[in-house]
Amino acid sequence: MPFARILLALVTGILLQWNIQFRFCWLLPAFIAGLCLLLAYFFLPLRLKFRFGLFCGLLVLAQTVLLGAMLVWMTEPRNKQTWIGNAAIEQACAELELEESLTEKPNSFKAIASIKAIYQGHRRIPARGKVIVYFKKDLPLKRPAIGSLLIAVRPLQEVKSTGNPGSFDYKRYCYFQGISHQVYLAPEDYILLPAATVYPFKNFIFSCRQWVLRTIRKFIPGEKEAGLAEALLIGYKDDLDKDLVQSYSNTGVVHVIAISGLHLGLIYGLLLVLTRPLRSRLLWLRLVIIIAGLWLFSILAGAQPSVLRSALMFTFLAGGEVLRRRSGIYNSLALSAFLLLCYNPFWLWDIGFQLSYSAVLSILIFFRPVYNWWVFPGWLPDQLWKLSAVTLSAQLLTTPVSCFHFHQFPLMFLVTNLVAVPLSSAILFGELLLCALHFVQPVAKLTGWLLHWLIFLMNAFIERIGRLPFAVWEGLYLSAVQAVLLTAFILCLSAWFMAKHRVLLWMGLLSALSFMALRAQSFRDTGRQKKIIIYNITKHRTIEFLAGRKAYYAGDKTPLRDRQLWSFHIKSSRVLHRINRQKICLPGREFIFCNRRLIIVDTALQFLPVAKKIRADILLLSRNPSVKITSLSAVMDIRQLVIDGSVPPWRAANWKKECDSLRIPCYNIAEKGAFVMKL
């Protein structure tokens, strides 16, 4: 497995460069010097080659580490001189080119655009980068399409994360895709240029996706059923019901919605059957057809890392069949990961990438030992046990990853997978049949009706299981170190069971003890914590006082009642701080917590002269009160002023200027993220 070692070295280089940020002027000479040493090694006499063989291997690994660091440096947008983040864009117009078609959202149309240049006065300055463009719903008749060029009159805004504790880092997620800015455009905010770039392949893929979506919506009744059918076939998730997706996640079968190895395996098997007549004399033509079909479907499905991993693996498999040279499966898996990370090193942080490789590796390691636990007579019991063995083995290494990212564990995953996997496979074959026979109306209508009921039954079963009180174990917070230790414990203990080496047992026990020690320390720290958190939620005031594992909530009731606001902003913070009890505070404008006074100003007030100023450890400005900071400072001793997310940007900017002139510390939540004070 040579690529296993090389992959680990590449990952090491990627992580080192992201965390330390070496300069390219250091990396390149070191890489060239290493190449020269490798070249010199190959000219050594055979006797010296054997003597310095270990040195050569270490040098190759060192070169791979440097390669990983250089790939990160070259991929990072901020290292490019023309990157839009390095330019002054406050009063500039931007020339944009749409890279994809418009996607309809509840209140707008969304698309990704690449930046060609910015205009400052009459100067056209070349610039590069990507931007998320939101178009207002009332677009003109001629809508921008793929390749359209337009001038955005409104200035670009930097993509920001909420900064709420434990929340998803949306800014980093966009940055890893090369996106750093966003803009909202009404029809009067942009000029559509007559010139446009033509992308034949992109247009072909877009036309294919639109045709598939139209076919599914035409023949499969029901919005929920059609939305799931679109996700199953081509990974189109915009029409998916959010509550349904949550049910699939809670029951451990969300992988049937994401295009992955299961779907590519079915496509690969279908292509093998269709090209069977070519297996004797036209073997190379068969290989080309299979590989072209796999990659076309992968691109049609969005070309996500999990899809590309499957496409690469099946490409290696098909090539090995033609060349009659089968490579080791672990080496092929490591090679596919190596190639994907060379293409985009930031995929290392992609959740789909991590789950895909951990699931495949877990199945490769554990399926055969788990399957050998029991022998069932009869074909049907054996197939059911085989599916159960695959599910159990895949869950072993994906559990640390899923707990780290999603903070939950599906307890009913074995039951739901026994139903969802066969049904989703049958549904996928049915959708392919529907697309192939769409022109035969009676057959297409019958197929669509059958698919509707199959999807309805699968959804009903998953939702019913998801409503069980013991279906999911929530609130599982794992740090990155804890997730690594848990993975090491699973691998070492399993290897000890299979190989019976005592060293593996001791390593597994050491990992388990370290894991439990870190868990105990984290519970001890959260039991003593005292914090004041003011969340960054647009148009809402949300305050929490944390005392140990108990939260005192003071703010609007909407974030507690709205499932989306709760899940996206507050739930992750509760999991991070291990909160197990909550108390709602009575409405008020003054709170005292751990000898810290928090005063809220959300209405216009008139102040009378006072003999002694009121101490305000935190003065929170909320809503849109017409007040002056000078008037507030005349009656209050302001230690820290905080502007929450419900304040209009223009008023927040005025208050910030006043605070700067009065030398009062000012924290604007909309710009800096949630405000957290540790006590």
Topology:
Blueprint: H1 2-20, H2 24-42, H3 46-51, H4 53-75, E1 93-98, E2 103-104, E3 108-120, E4 123-126, E5 130-136, E6 148-152, E7 157-158, H5 170-176, E8 179-185, E9 190-196, H6 200-219, H7 223-234, H8 242-250, H9 261-274, H10 283-300, H11 305-323, H12 329-343, H13 351-371, H14 379-406, E10 408-410, H15 413-436, H16 441-466, E11 472-474, H17 480-499, H18 502-528, E12 530-534, E13 542-547, E14 550-555, H19 558-561, H20 563-576, E15 581-584, E16 590-593, E17 596-601, E18 614-616, E19 618-621, H21 629-635, E20 636-638, E21 641-643, H22 649-662, E22 666-668, H23 669-672, E23 675-678
Parallel strand pairs: 5-8, 14-15, 17-19, 18-20, 19-21, 21-22
Antiparallel strand pairs: 1-3, 1-6, 2-3, 3-4, 3-5, 6-9, 7-8, 10-11, 12-13, 12-23, 13-14, 16-17
Helix pairs in contact: 1-4, 1-12, 2-4, 6-7, 7-16, 8-16, 9-10, 9-11, 10-11, 11-12, 12-13, 13-14, 14-15, 14-17, 15-16, 17-18
Kindly describe this structure.
The protein has 679 residues and is an alpha/beta fold. The chain contains 23 helices and 23 strands. Strands 1, 2, 3, 4, 5, 6, 7, 8 and 9 form a 9-stranded mixed beta sheet that branches. The chain has a 5-stranded mixed beta sheet with strand order 15-14-13-12-23, with no helix packed on it. A 5-stranded mixed beta sheet has the order 16-17-19-21-22. The protein is globular, with a radius of gyration of 29 Å. The model has no long low-confidence stretch (mean pLDDT 88).
